[in-house]
Amino acid sequence: MTYDRLVCANCAAPVSEGRCPTCRANRERMQQPFGGLTPGALLVLLVVLATAAALLVR
Q1: Distance from C-alpha of 7 to C-alpha of 15, rounded to nearest angstrom
Q2: Phi, psi at residue 7, to the nearest 5°?
Q3: pLDDT tens digit sequence for 11-56
Q4: What per-residue confidence (pLDDT) applies to 28?
Q5: Cα gap 18→14, rounded to integer Å
Q6: Which range marks the domain in which residue 23 is found?
Q7: 18 backbone dihedrals φ, ψ, rounded to 5°
Q8: Cα 2 to the chain's mean position, in Å?
Q9: Cβ atoms < 10 Å from Cβ of 13
Q10: Cα→Cα distances 47→10, 17, 44, 56, Å
Q11: According to the 3-state scheme, what is the secondary structure of the chain?
């Protein structure tokens, strides 16, 4: 889902318009690469992918 279809629970306006601080913060977070995943989540994803690759090579 993209942020242009989301409605803010704080101001009831589309998030893409950025009318309130909550809208602007969420819009910025959603524009980051990988949807704003934390470094820890990226590390877990990397470990899972490496484990799956190791199992496939066997």
Answers
A1: 6
A2: -115, 135
A3: 988 888 888 998 888 888 777 776 667 788 889 999 999 999 999 9
A4: 83
A5: 7
A6: 3-57
A7: 65, 45
A8: 10
A9: 13
A10: 37, 38, 5, 14
A11: CCHHHCECCCCCCEHHHCCCHHHHHHHHHHHCHHHHCCHHHHHHHHHHHHHHHHHHHC
Dig out the tokens for 22 from the structure: 């909550």
Query: pTM for this one?
Result: 0.49
- Buried b vs exposed e over 30-58: b needs ≥16 C-beta within 10 Å? beeeeeeeeeeeeeeeeeeeeeeeeeeee
pLDDT score for 23: 85
**Res 38: pLDDT:** 79
Answer yes or no: is pLDDT of 10 > 60: yes
State how many domains the chain has. 1
